[in-house]
Amino acid sequence: MAHAIGPEDIERVRPAVEKVAVRTPVFNSRMLTEMVPGSRVVLKAENLQRTGSFKVRGVSAKLSELGESARRGIVAASAGNHAQAVAFGAATHGVPAHVFMPAEASIAKAEATAAYGASIHLEGDSVDSCLALAAERCAKSGEILVHPFNDPAIIAGQGTLGLELLEQVEELRLVVIPLGGGGLAGGVALALKSKRPEINVIGVQAAACAPYVESLKQGKAVEVPTLPTLADGIAVKHPGELTLPLVEDFIDDVVTVNEDDIADAMVLLLERAKLLVEGAGAVGVAALLARAIELPTDGATALVLSGGNVDTGLLAPAIRRHESNAGRRLVVFARVPDRPGQLARLLTVLGEAGGNVVTVEHLRDGYDLHVRETGLHVVLETRNREHAAAVLQAARAHGYSVSPVGWRAAGFDSSDLPR
User: Fold this and answer.
1) What is the pLDDT of residue 32?
2) Which CATH architecture has domain 7-53+152-320?
3) Is the pLDDT score of 414 beyond 70?
4) Exposure of 192 by Cβ count < 10 A (0-12 exposed, 13-18 middle, 19+ buried)?
5) What is the pLDDT confidence band of residue 406, given thresholds at 50, 70 and 90?
6) Rounded to the nearest 10 degrees, what angle do helices 81-93 and 55-66 cross at?
7) Given 3.40.50.1100, 3.40.1050.10, 3.90.1150.10, 3.40.190.10, which CATH number is that of 55-145?
8) CB-based contacts of 320, cutoff 8 Å, min separation 6
């Protein structure tokens, strides 16, 4: 099948890309290598790229192709990463840029885009609707649309990441890469397979927005219903007409991961690898931890961390969830007699068991409490699951009715639910 680009196109745009994009590092991950049996695991830290994601590669290639015609102005649509790359590229080349972003786009990403000097239009309910608005503006104004993925120059620019992997990773056997519109995954897979066809490439989508799974099954581009996802950077409802054939021909498999796995991967990378990675960039690690992919028995597996533009409003809940799952954050509902001194006694028991009390809240309404009884919502810091269980047992041994909140995630059985 003929494709929009060939390997020679990726080589051709590489000098232009390297003038702007940095050669991001590859880190050996002892943590993941030990956690998941198989080959050595390495991380391609594209989250450390200029503007915080791989998108600057494609935009650099596109602006180089446009040359002087870019001075008419460029227009883009994006949930955030492509927006920032376009704004940065436009500022670098001294051309005006207008960017359409969903009304509910990350505030941090919108502000970062505006800081580069682009005009921001917060309209539409998705990247797809923003693309329609951007195309409409270009038709009227004569400005040039810079598509986030369905453009030969964009795909070729993203493919330069694959060339870097070949040079940076010895004995490369498998590459696991986020799959949104398909520009990155398709370009990188083409670059890899053209030189080393034995390398396997797996694309990862968020289960909440996975059009490629159904599109590959039906052999044509299919739009799917979507749900909100932490991986907003790859939440594209419909594959591109240029990228779908690349994915069909050069990607060996496509898997999906759920929101809990994505959240766990983000926090694990932050805590253990000291890398701040957004949901879309963490899906490869999520797939590894969920055992959605099988590693080769030798050589190296590279996980592409495609971006690091995290909305801090989403990061805090992910961290709290991780702390609860690990048993380092214990939230309990306690029933105590409504008499002086009972709260102090309970807190003393929890403290002597090693629990560090963070907050305490009285709950009197909405619970089946005795008239002489009060409910308490207590948040504690504990060391691990075993210690959390010991803290619960200590309170119960002193006669207190104490049940963990979020019992399923914390590993407790249904008998621990508050009544």
Assistant:
1) 96
2) 3-Layer(aba) Sandwich (3.40)
3) no
4) buried
5) low
6) 40
7) 3.40.50.1100
8) 329
